[in-house]
Design brief:
With 267 residues, this protein is mainly beta. Helix content is 13%, strand content 40%. The chain is built from six helices and 20 strands.
C-alpha cells in the first residue's frame, strides 16, 4: 500500500495511491481515506481522484523529530575523508525542515556549498522504547524517500550539524509512504539520485553499514520514538553541490521518486 498526503481543495487529506502499474489498464488514482493513518483507523470515503489532479505534499510531518544517521555507507564516509564511526552517528533535524514533492529547497545565503543526500527514510508507526532488533518490524509503519540537504561548509565550520542540516526546506520527503515493503526488502532497495537528469548517486541499501533493525534499536535505546517520527538511514557516495535552478530527484525502487528544485532565498 502507498499512503499519500495530498491537497485537492482545502486542507491536506490522506489517500491510498493506486498506480496503473498495479491495476493494469486503469489510470493512476488516489482513493481518499478519512482520518490520519498514523493516528488510528481510517476508512475509505468512496471518493477517487486522478493522481494528476492533486498536489502531493509531504506524506508525514513528524510529530516530534527526525533522526538522521551519518556515515552509514562506507564509500560516502571515505569520499569526505572520514572513517566509519564505531557506533551509529546520529543527529536531529527539526520538523520545520520538512517539505514535500516539487516544493522548493531554499538555498540560504549563509552557505556556498549546499549538498544533496538521497536516502531511504523509515516512518515509525507506534510509540516505542528500547526495541530489540528482532522486534523492529513491529514498530515500522513504512518507508519513504528523503533528501538530507546539507550545508557542507557550515557542517565543517560549526563542528556539529544542527545548523548545517536544519534550515527550513532541508528535509524533502515523499512522494508517499510504502507500507507494503518488508524490513528485509527495505535492506536491498536500489537508490538513484539525479542532478538535472544526470545520475550522481547509485547504490543499494544493502550497502548500509548498519541495517534498519540495528539502527532503530540503537536509537530507541536513548529516546522514545513516536508515531510519525522519521529516521534517515544515511546516504551513499556521490554527494555534491546544488545551486539555485538545479533539479534533484531521488528514486528508490519499490517506493517512487522525490523531486525538488533549488531556489535562492529571497532577500
Amino acid at each position: 500500500m502507498r499512503i499519500a498526503r495530498f491537497v485537492a481543495q482545502g486542507d491536506p487529506t490522506y489517500g491510498v495511491v493506486e498506480l496503473a502499474e498495479d491495476q493494469g489498464p486503469n489510470p493512476d488514482t488516489i482513493a481518499v481515506v478519512s482520518g490520519d493513518p498514523l493516528a488510528g483507523p481510517v476508512h475509505y470515503t468512496g471518493e477517487r481522484l486522478p493522481l494528476a489532479d492533486v498536489r502531493l505534499v509531504s506524506p508525514v510531518i513528524p510529530r516530534s523529530k527526525i533522526i538522521g544517521v551519518g556515515r552509514n555507507y562506507a564509500e560516502h564516509a571515505a569520499e569526505l575523508g572520514n572513517e566509519v564511526p564505531a557506533n551509529p552517528l546520529l543527529f536531529f533535524k527539526p520538523n520545520t525542515a520538512v517539505i514535500g514533492p516539487f516544493e522548493p529547497i531554499v538555498h540560504p545565503p549563509e552557505t556556498e556549498n549546499l549538498h544533496y543526500e538521497g536516502e531511504l527514510a523509515v516512518v515509525i508507526g507506534r510509540i516505542c522504547r528500547r526495541v530489540p532488533p528482532e522486534r523492529v518490524t513491529d514498530v515500522v509503519f513504512g518507508y519513504t524517500v528523503a533528501n538530507d540537504v546539507t550545508c557542507r561548509d557550515l557542517q565543517n565550520s560549526d563542528g556539529q550539524w544542527t545548523r548545517a542540516k536544519g534550515y527550513d526546506s532541508f528535509c524533502p520527503l515523499g512522494p508517499w509512504i510504502a507500507t507494503h515493503i518488508s524490513i528485509e526488502e527495505a535492506g536491498r532497495l536500489d537508490l538513484l539520485t539525479s542532478l538535472n537528469d544526470e545520475p550522481v548517486q547509485a547504490a543499494s541499501t544493502d550497502q548500509m553499514v548498519r541495517g534498519i533493525p540495528e539502527l532503530i534499536s540503537y536509537i530507541s535505546d536513548f529516546t522514545t520514538l513516536l508515531p510519525g517520527d522519521v529516521v534517515l538511514t544515511g546516504t551513499p557516495a556521490g554527494v555534491g553541490r546544488m545551486v539555485p535552478g538545479d533539479r534533484i530527484s531521488v528514486t528508490i525502487s519499490g517506493i517512487g521518486t522525490l523531486t525538488n528544485t533549488v531556489v535562492a532565498e529571497d532577500a
